[in-house]
Amino acid sequence: MTELSHLTADGSVKMVDVTDKFTSVRIASASATITMAPDTIGLITHEKIPKGNVLTTAKIAGIQAAKSTSRLIPLCHPVRITCADITFQTQSSQILITATVTARDTTGIEMEALTAASVTALTIYDMCKAVDKTMTISDIRVIEKKGGKSSHSQSDYRPETGILVLSDRISKGIGEDTSGEILKRGFTHSGCRVSHFQIIPDDPDQLLKTIENWRQTGVELIVTSGGTGLSSRDITIQTLEPLFDKRLTGIENALHRVGSESTHHAMLSRLAAGVIGNAIMVCLPGSSGAAEDGLRVLIPAVFHAFDMIHGNSSPG
Length: 316
What we know:
The chain is α/β, with parallel strands linked by helices.
């Protein structure tokens, strides 16, 4: 059974921490139905309701409600709404309401859409209650949600994955690997089979040999950690870049952007992403923070890249 994210281990309520979630465009639509007497529909259509224009007032109320959701629902996050719209479908004895909300943020906005649809229906009720005592509000529900990990556009494909840590110190037993373990847990949790995991020194020949062996055994996604700094022993980028058939500059830019949100020093780290044959390689800095940022950027977006490689999808 899925755990409730708004509860702590002892059963107390909490606000979910979305600090480390990746910002993306989020869209949600919700609907509601208000049923009334046919004569009331006629009064609304011909703008004969004593309080004024019902649908215009209800639309404004719904948009205001979407923007006020976090003040009404205690554990909802404030989100940066970029668009909110309300549409109506008037039938003989009911009005179908659809609220669509768009935001660029780190969390979903279905609650904003639901709140907008609900308040729109309540406003229609308030505007018309003097002339119709039979009205009922029903069927409030989410009808569509896009963006984030739950988006229907996300790929179901999970590549066979290898995690390669480069560090002179850790390969000699001096120090403990953290970044590689973070990456291994993250990709395993997302459904990938992490079939290869290895720690090697910062040696270009061993690096190339390991990558070639992994590719020959069917590893499709190779993520390296370490060797991206500025010292003479940081050889990962210059060793692997010549192997790329295509650069994945979008992934590189996203990694730099997210890293810069975590630490100003991220601008000093080199990183790379590219396609080698049918495999994707991503080279990350060796810190635990860089590994966590890498997971935020790569999962689940990188899985869609394999659909593109296999000719099953487009980048759009």
